[in-house]
Structures are given as structure tokens and as C-alpha cells.
Specification:
The chain is of the alpha/beta class. The chain contains eleven helices and twelve strands. The strands form three sheets. Strands 3-4-5-8-9-10-11-12 form an eight-stranded parallel β-barrel, surrounded by four helices. A two-stranded antiparallel ribbon has the order 1-2. The protein has a two-stranded antiparallel sheet with strand order 6-7. It starts with a strand and ends in an 11-residue tail after the last helix. InterPro entries: AKR2_Oxidoreductase (IPR053135), NAD(P)_OxRdtase_dom_sf (IPR036812), NADP_OxRdtase_dom (IPR023210). Residues 15-287 form the NADP-dependent oxidoreductase domain.
Amino acid sequence: MKILNTKDGLSLSELSLGCMNLPIDDKAEAEKIIEAALDAGINYFDTADLYQFGENEKMVGEILDKYRSRYDFLIGTKVGNQFDAAKQEKTAWNPTAPYIKEAVKDSLHRLGVNELDLYQLHGGTIEDNKDETIQAFEDLKQEGTIRSYGISSVRMNVIDYYKKHSAIATLMMQFNPIDNRPLEVTDELSGIRPLARGPLMKGLLSANAASVLEKKFDEGVLGYSKDELKATVDALAVINRDLTALSYAFLRKNGAVIVNGVSSLRQLEDNLRSYRHTEDLTDDGYNGILEAVKILKYGEHRI
């Protein structure tokens, strides 16, 4: 498994595990998934306090704790979405320093750790007091509560501010050959490591592309009609029949950590098989992918 470093010293497996869709009601299956990921060399596990209103963090922490003596691994989580666990609902967007400094204590407790490897702002708006948020993360880092921090955002005005005014080490975005909007920022990240969520575009870039297209993309997406999506997927499949490996190769070319979520052991095994068959793209191969898709830009939330 290839390892990618952040500018402040985290060493993340190129293929990492997004934990949002782990089977929260089947802990035994979730443990099989996590153990298989560890065995395969995956060392970064990405969750958020909002996922299942804290229960995801708790389950991930409990499972990983069993393997702490056998494996070195890193945990990342996210903050900013205030929620009521009892009512199972989000109640507010809250990026204030007091909230972040209290929420981190809850995440540490649920995950069963004394320090977070990566703490990410789970969103962000231009109206936020971003300097206050940045200082909160810096304080937590100085205290040793977190090792590193980043943001998960698709808002260009937010991304630009944090790039210029903070020491974020990571930037999480939905990123794949079809949703290639992050391309407009990847060349300007100045050492910030991109984390690619949604690398398979909800399954559209997988062996199940035909059924996923019918079930999830009947109205199209991102300026593509359904017919255009089908034509694009068909064109990509000419380049590589393994669409998952194609997406992984595309993301590798952009230096991204691939945060791929799964809900079953079979999905993880399929992803690992594709990852092992992923080859570095030549410039011609990369350009071939770009020629098969629309080159998109973020249309909203711009300065």
C-alpha cells in the first residue's frame, strides 16, 4: 500500500476507509471490514461526529481499539454540525471556538483516544468567523489534543480562505473523473493533501455502473443528462473496463488520498482488487480520461 504524507507529518495510506456507511447495526460485519482493511495495509479511517449522531465514532473507536497492539493506524473525524443525539437530528451549524473545543472532548471519548490524528471542519460558510475557527484548531494542536487539522468543503470561497490563512494539512472534496471540480484547486494547494471522498461517484464508476445509473441518476447530475452520463461511462470503460481502477489511477495522478466508503466486506474486497490493479497513468492516459468527461468548476460560493 502506497503511503502519502501530509505537510505536517501524517502518513496516510493512499487507499483509506470512509466509515460513514459501515453497518452500524451489524458490528460483527463492521469489524470484519475494518480488520480486512488493516490487513490490506489501510491505515487511515475517516469518520465524523455527525455520522449516526456519534454512534459511528463510538463503533469505529471500539473496533479499532482491539487492533491497536497489532497495527499502526490513524483516525480522522469532523466537527461543526451541532446535533441532538437523543432526537437523532442536526440542530445547527456551529464553527465557533467554544463549540469546537467541547465537541472534540466528546469525539475523543467516543473514539476512546487521548489525541486525534486529524480533525476536520465538516463544512464551512463565508459568513463564519473563520479566524476564530482557525485559532480553535491551532489551540487544540498546540495543546496536543489533535495532531493535524483540515477542512471538508466544496465552497470555493471557504477553501480559498483556509488555503491562505490557515495551516490546514488536508482538504476533503468529492473527487473522481466525473465530478472533477477539484481540478481547479489541486494545482494551487501548496502542500495541502487532497482527500477524495466519493471516488466511485455513488457506484457509477464501478462494475455496477448500469444499475446505478438507472437507480440513482435518472435525472442526471452536475450538468450531465442521464444519456450523457451513460455515454461518458461507456467512453471511460473503453480506456479501462475496471472503472474503479480507472478512478483510482485518476486520483493517484492528482496526489489524492482515496477515502472510499463501503457497507460490506464484499465491497471492500472489490475495491482492494481494483486498487491492486491500478497502474500509474501516463500523461496520454490521463488526458484520455479528461477528453472523455466534462471539465467542471464549482459554480456557487465563489468570492
